[in-house]
């Protein structure tokens, strides 16, 4: 900015120097006129001087008349440096304003380009997030005890837009929707306001899209954490209930083996104990056993065998423990059903976000947003 002012002043100085020299010459001419002029009212004689190779004698009594510059020309000469200086200042002012306008337009275009790049680079992460959710959902739906982990794409969170200025986006959209300067001269305030409202609407749509995307990511993260916590709690509870059943089964086995009354023969209990010990032995040999199969491998057959021993009050606590295992297994399945519903909803949301993103990019690629 200072360089522009210095340039204007230098131009004005160069324009003023010749005029100052001319003014000095004029002053000397005026002084010569005053010194040569005679206060006599009557002219004695006038001699016409002609140039020739040989000098001609001049009458000493003759009067030499020097024509004086016109007063108006002298005033203009004195005013010219001031006019030049003011012209230089005005030119410098407008150059400075043009420079500021140019820098501002360049900044706005750069900011708009960065917004466009950031939005465009969201497409692939969103697609990858949808694919990850679908794979996780398929893994959980198999009802295997172990399932695939969910990959969270942190690049689709709103943190990437935190360094971008919302005002810059609005300025960029306003420039794209604004009429050209010659059209603005003939456009009404209503038309201009309508164009500005369109730019504001698109800006709000973009910010709304970013907010929704951020909300979806946070929701996905929360549901993943809730699922992990829920599975951990229900699995630990199931393990504790199974351990409690083991203790009760060993106690019942001891009581029956040392029953002096021998009210029931051991053959009545043999099918139930055989079923239980076979299941425990298989469970210990297979650490990756799918506990979802416990329902058909042990719980349901065990309840059928216990139904034959209803006359023995000692099996009531065993039956209650097996019922608790039923409930615990249902709790694990409920956690998985709940997360499957949430994942289905999130897949739908992210697909909608992809559609909205495509429309936003299309608006950015247009020469003039309509």
Shape designation: rod-shaped
Instruction: Estimate percent helicity.
Output: over 70%
Beta-strand content: under 5%
Give the total of beta strands: 0
Number of helices: 9
Give start-end ranges of low-pLDDT stretches.
1-6, 14-45
Could you tell me the mean pLDDT?
A: 77
Kindly name the structural category: mainly alpha
Could you describe the largest sheet, including whether it forms a barrel? Answer: none
Q: In angstroms, what separates the terminal alpha carbons?
A: 37 Å
Estimated radius of gyration: 50 Å
Topology as a string of helices (H) and strands (E): HHHHHHHHH
Describe the structure.
By secondary structure, the chain is mainly alpha-helical. It has nine helices and no strands. α8 runs antiparallel to α9. The longest helix has 69 residues. The chain is rod-shaped and about 170 Å long. It starts with a helix and ends in a 5-residue tail after the last helix. The N terminus is likely disordered.
